[in-house]
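Priority: medium. Attachment 1 of 2:
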């Protein structure tokens, strides 16, 4: 296991040192408690760099991986194992100082040297109106000239200091810079408003008057994406307004001309590599020498970037197959780590240790992102490219795994109906053409707007749809579809129904987003009991905007609103109550007063998940995720993008893998997971084991006892019976840090682990070898 040192360096803050772990590619390896891992798409190659016998490849989804050309190994890099941020926009390797530099869309910068990451967050923290993205790098010794969304920034890569900022728009205003090159005297900057140059020896480059706008261009105010200084000539790319394709042009002091070898195509990259001009078009990568002779040409379907490595090998970044190595004969070898096909994460469900994720969200409902499955550490994607049967089914935004059949999964589409998977294959699509499902009125074919699916313990599928006067359907185990007739009068084209939950006690809860909750009985064939109510807490406050539902281990129903979560105790009595009132837990303040605050009352609750210890995970729109105690009165964790590897504070969806305690978070920037301490437990002991066992003298992490009966008491004694530690299991798992009650690491020896339930009727004893 590789250790990664992370430094955060800013002129505004003192040095901060944090030790993180970087994992090898073996995703199936057991995670330690409290450990994170990313689940990003690595197939969408974007930018390449070479250094330390590795080819680095960043992706459009913001991830990074490397391929070691000596031993063919792969490593993944992300915020989950050492990087400071998500959304990588640019990478480059500076051979003068042997450092990989990463630029992010928010202006953040990471310098990767050996096993250390040095973060320079100055641009990210700077208050700048407009875009901060770092678009490209140019190196001069230990200095990096960075093309940014507002100008050029000069970074000293040895001292980790921002030296200067050059803004040369009109009157010194901001201007997006796309690329930078150098002719041994002048710096050239390709911008959104033409091309500029400045003498690098000018001591006052911060003065916008030091920058001269080139006039000898087909349009001196056009956007120019790339620059290359090659064969004592300045090359750039100009989008021809007549052909709508890109021209490669050569720019001199007084004129420009179309380069004779211009591809008349869409150009995805232009640069100078190993003395050659390299460019990628929609289907070719070409290399030319200084005399304009074609040195090499290979097919590269929509190549985004290409490099010639130090051995003369050619590589390009492909938007579908990651990193592509071109052999001498021209054959291609695609290289990328396993991951979901896309970055987006819709609804999630975990059953039988299998995670399914819908690829569709409200923002991507017209995209063919399909669904993803994560089993035994391996991702498998289902979309029109992997299965022709999905073509035309543009998104899977809702997911439910059948509790009666582990091989059966149902997906719901925001516009295209229902899709069934069986044994990892598509078995059918159900819409208005072959069932009673109705499209949104006025849209006709192809707009059955499914917004929720759930499967009850009998195998009945429950479906809710948006903007309809018939919003609820059920499909029985034998396949018959029925529309559920409800008395609620306000269904129609203006009604958003955005969630459905089939509970363990025969009710179905339906979210009517801007109104409240509708509950009806699911187990009656003759007459449906029904109750609609606005969500209100014990303070009498009405929380009518509802987003999420979950049933906890005790059968209580939690509703996520725009002002925090509300829980309904005794939901079986919901039809008998005159005015159902929920309870919003009140958290006592830690200021010595008797005051308390309503739980997460300023947060929109996007999703709710219950772990094996009946603890509640709340996903919020702006504040990351919260783990709250079973009674809702104590905050256990609060993860944000600022204090954890969480990619974004906008967490859309979650799921808990109860067998291991791993919690998956679907954010608007991708999927990341955290190994929690709570696992699912039964009424009796399962396969009880301790890991690691033995505990080596070099190990200083948590020791886990798993396979326990629910919430048992765990006592750890030495071989003589002296108690050294005691704790309560979280669900079916207990954690020990290897220290006694005084906080001291215990001595070498054999230790006994006694596990007992409350009344002593169920016990288990196991052993642990501990080496000091």
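Attachment 2 of 2:
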């Amino acid at each position: 296991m590789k250790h990664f040192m992370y430094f955060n360096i800013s002129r505004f803050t003192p040095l901060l040192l944090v030790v993180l772990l970087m994992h090898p590619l073996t995703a199936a390896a057991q995670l330690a408690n409290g450990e994170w891992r990313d689940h990003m798409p690595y197939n969408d190659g974007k930018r390449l760099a070479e250094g330390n016998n590795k080819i680095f490849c960043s992706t459009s989804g913001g991830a990074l991986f490397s391929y070691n050309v000596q031993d063919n190994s792969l490593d993944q890099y992300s915020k989950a194992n050492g990087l400071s941020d998500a959304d990588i926009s640019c990478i480059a390797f500076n051979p003068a100082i042997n450092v990989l530099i990463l630029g992010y869309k928010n202006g953040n910068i990471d310098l990767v040297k050996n096993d250390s990451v040095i973060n320079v967050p100055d641009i990210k923290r700077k208050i700048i109106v407009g875009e901060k993205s770092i678009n490209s790098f140019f190196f001069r010794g230990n200095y990096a000239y960075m093309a940014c969304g507002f100008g050029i920034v000069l970074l000293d890569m040895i001292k980790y200091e921002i030296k200067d900022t050059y803004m040369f728009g009109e009157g010194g205003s901001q201007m997006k810079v796309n690329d930078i090159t150098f002719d041994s005297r002048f710096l050239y900057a390709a911008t959104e408003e033409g091309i500029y140059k400045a003498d690098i020896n000018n001591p006052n480059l911060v003065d916008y008057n030091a920058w001269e706008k080139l006039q000898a261009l087909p349009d001196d105010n056009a956007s120019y994406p790339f620059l290359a200084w090659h064969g004592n000539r300045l090359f750039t790319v100009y989008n021809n307004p007549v052909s709508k394709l890109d021209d490669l042009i050569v720019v001199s002091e007084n004129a420009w001309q179309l380069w004779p070898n211009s591809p008349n195509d869409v150009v995805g990259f232009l640069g100078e590599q190993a003395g050659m001009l390299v460019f990628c078009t929609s289907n070719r990568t070409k290399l030319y020498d200084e005399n304009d002779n074609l040195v090499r040409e290979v097919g590269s379907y929509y190549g985004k970037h290409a490099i010639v490595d130090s051995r003369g090998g050619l590589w390009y970044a492909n938007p579908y197959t990651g990193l592509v190595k071109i052999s001498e004969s021209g054959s291609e070898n695609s290289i990328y780590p396993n991951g979901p096909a896309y970055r987006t994460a819709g609804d999630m469900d975990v059953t039988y240790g299998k995670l399914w994720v819908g690829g569709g969200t409200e923002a991507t409902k017209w995209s063919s992102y399909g669904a993803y499955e994560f089993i035994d550490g391996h991702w498998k994607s289902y979309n029109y490219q992997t299965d022709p049967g999905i073509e035309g089914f543009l998104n899977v935004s809702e997911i439910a795994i059948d509790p009666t059949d582990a091989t059966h999964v149902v997906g719901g589409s925001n516009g295209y109906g229902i899709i069934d998977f069986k044994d990892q294959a598509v078995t059918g699509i159900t819409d208005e053409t072959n069932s009673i499902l109705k499209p949104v009125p006025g849209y006709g074919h192809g707009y059955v707007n499914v917004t929720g699916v759930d499967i009850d313990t009998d195998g009945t599928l429950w479906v809710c749809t948006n903007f309809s006067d018939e919003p609820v359907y059920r499909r029985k185990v034998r396949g018959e579809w029925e529309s559920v007739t409800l008395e609620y009068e306000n269904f129609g084209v203006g009604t958003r129904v955005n969630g459905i939950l089939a509970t363990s006690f025969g009710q179905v809860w339906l979210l009517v987003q801007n109104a409240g909750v509708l509950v009806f009985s699911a187990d009656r064939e003759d007459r449906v009991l029904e109750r609609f109510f606005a969500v209100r807490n014990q303070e009498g406050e009405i929380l009518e905007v509802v987003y999420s539902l979950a049933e906890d281990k005790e059968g209580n129903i939690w509703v996520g609103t725009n002002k925090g979560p509300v829980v309904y105790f005794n939901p079986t009595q919901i039809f008998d109550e005159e005015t159902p009132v929920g309870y919003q837990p009140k958290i006592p303040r830690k200021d010595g007063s008797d005051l308390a605050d309503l739980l997460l009352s300023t947060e929109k609750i996007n999703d709710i998940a219950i772990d094996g210890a009946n603890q509640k995970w709340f996903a919020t729109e702006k504040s990351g995720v919260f783990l709250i105690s079973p009674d809702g009165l104590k905050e256990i964790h609060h993860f944000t993008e600022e204090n954890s590897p969480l990619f974004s504070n906008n967490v859309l969806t979650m799921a808990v893998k109860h067998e291991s305690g791993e919690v998956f978070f679907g954010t608007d920037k991708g999927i990341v997971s955290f190994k929690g301490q709570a696992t699912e437990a039964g009424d009796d002991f399962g396969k009880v084991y301790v890991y690691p066992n033995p505990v080596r003298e070099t190990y200083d992490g948590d020791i886990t006892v798993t396979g326990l009966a629910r919430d048992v008491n765990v006592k750890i004694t030495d071989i003589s019976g002296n108690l050294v530690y005691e704790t309560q299991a979280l669900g079916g798992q207990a954690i020990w840090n290897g220290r006694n009650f005084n906080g001291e690491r215990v001595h070498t020896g054999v230790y006994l682990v006694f596990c007992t339930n409350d009344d002593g009727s169920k016990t288990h004893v196991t052993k642990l070898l501990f080496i000091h």
